[in-house]
Amino acid sequence: MTDRMILAPMPTIHPWSMESIGQAMATNAMPASAAASAVYPTAAMAIYVPFLVTETRTAMLLWCYNGATVGNGTADVGIYDRDGHRLVSATPTTTAGTGTLQTFNTADLVLPPGRYFMAILLSNATDTLFSRAPNAELLRSLGVYQEATGDSTLPATATMATMAQAYLPVFGLAFRSVI
Amino acid sequence: MDLSLTPILPRDVVTITTMSLASMGGQAISSAPASATFPAANRAIYVPFRNTRHVTVRQLFSYNGATASDNIDVGIYTEDGRRLVSSGAVALAGTNALQLYDVTDFILGPGVFYLAVSMSGTTGTLFRIGTPTALTRVLGVVQEASAHPLPATATFAAAASAYIPVLGLAGVASL
Question: Which of A32, A172, A179 lies nearest to residue B29, judging by beta carbons?
Answer without folding.
Answer: A32
